[in-house]
Amino acid sequence: MNSDWMRWRRAERMRLRSERLMQSVEDRRIASIALADHLRTFINQQFGGAVGRVFSIYWPIKAEPNLRPLMIELHDAGVIVALPVVEVKAAPMAFRRWTPQTRMVRGDWNIPVPPPDSDRVLPDITLAPLVGWDGEGYRLGYGGGYFDRTLAAAHPPPFTIGIGWQSAQLATIKPQPHDIPLDAIIT
Fold this sequence. Notes:
The protein has helices at about 5-20, 25-45, 70-75, 145-155; strands at about 55, 80-85, 95-100, 105, 110-115, 125-130, 130-135, 140, 160-165, 170, 185. By secondary structure, the chain is α/β, with parallel strands linked by helices.
């Protein structure tokens, strides 16, 4: 990747993360509820719901949208909820089943994850957190390449939905050959 583009991406990540950290906790809470409503509507329209499917969400960090209440709602409705887990550095992520009773452990970057003895599953639908995004469906993540690596290795790949704040839209993320466009973006 061109070093100018790498610097640009690094600077955009820092700028966008700083902006979302400046939002109040209450504004993020209200926006997360609205985002969950948009996501619920989209899943119902696109798939007729998610009951009986494996649906991978993510544990929110660094002022990301908080969809934990939706995780409980989906589980209670009969959806198999999973969380992505970094088991090996610089490799595709695994997905472990989550329930409201799951005793979480600290994973990579100190993110809570289901323990190693949790069932491994393959998602039908997965959510990818967005630091930034563009109208072509590309996401700017944290820079580790985990979601791109995971999607590239998945056969068949899950339907992937980027989740983030509307204010994080960019004209382009300057996609590189390893970047994989998302199937949908919901803000």
